[in-house]
Hints:
Blueprint: H1 3-7, E1 21-28, E2 31-41, E3 47-54, E4 60-62, E5 74-76
Antiparallel strand pairs: 1-2, 1-5, 2-3, 3-4
Amino acid sequence: MNHRIKANMNKVNPKTLINSKWTKVDVVNKEKHFVITKVDFDEEQKVTCCVIEAVMNHNEYNIDWRDLKLSKSWKIGWK
């Protein structure tokens, strides 16, 4: 992986995802701030399910937790 690309990625640890806060860069339907409300793991401790909830209206979405690494799409915390 290119060092420049890696430097532009959020550091995400699956074990600390639950209740973590995120800001979506490209806001859709006024949903900007989110919280991870569910993370399930298999026997090998790999993430099998990750649910993110919009703070504004409580809509929930299944998300691939690896997408949170993309700093062009997500920011860690509420900005």
